[in-house]
Amino acid sequence: MRKPIGWSTLVIAALVAVSAALVWRRDGTDGVLEILTHDLSLFGGILPRVLAGCLLGAFISEILPHEKVSRSLGPKSGLKGLLIGTAFGAILPGGPFTAYPVASALLAVGADFGATIAMVVSWTLIGYGRAVAWEIPIMGTDFTLWRIVISLPLPVLAGSLGRFVYVRMYPKPATKDDET
């Protein structure tokens, strides 16, 4: 279980306090209140997406059949699991409020680190939604297609490296099933 307040939270809180003090020194209370008001509005807009993403991840982890996910994306899925993770990440719509809860749900139902890393890297590098909505209109079709083609092996490589490192950092004891 994660600690509610870890070192990263403390560092961020210290940076916020220093920044607030600097703004207060330069702009006074009105400057600080303006920023707080704007950020509360921003938080109010983001909160429903965070809630929806967390609920999506929770429901997915309950709906997906653990055995099939483990077989398709688990530690013994090999290259096929990395390719499935890559394909899934490439077609996964939405932003980080969707992708990370889905990745967390996959880990919870039997996907291994490698396939999940391949999914997240693919969503980041190849994601069709951003390519269609932003990249093709701004950068053009040729650039977008070449970027995708060049990026295709990277999720599989990242997933392979993730698997390699994970099994060495967290080795599982041998079981009777492994011996047969």
How many domains? The number is 2
Count the DSSP helices.
9
Question: What's the pLDDT, averaged over the residues?
Answer: 90
Which word captures the global form? globular
Span of the ends, CA to CA: 34 Å
User: Radius of gyration over alpha carbons?
Assistant: 21 Å
By secondary-structure content and strand pairing, the structural class works out as: mainly alpha
- Spans of at least 5 consecutive residues whose pLDDT stays below 50 are none
The secondary-structure element order is HHHHHHHHH
Number of strands: 0
Helical proportion, percent range = over 70%
Largest sheet: none
Q: How much strand content do the residues show?
A: under 5%
What do you see in this structure?
This protein is mainly alpha-helical. It has two domains: 7-54; 64-171, no CATH class. Helix content is 83%, strand content 0%. It contains nine helices and no strands. Helix 6 (128-139) crosses helix 7 (141-151). The longest helix is centred in the first third of the chain and has 57 residues, at 7-63. The chain is globular. The model has no long low-confidence stretch (mean pLDDT 90).
Report a brief summary of the structure.
With 180 residues, the chain is mainly α. The chain has nine helices and no strands.
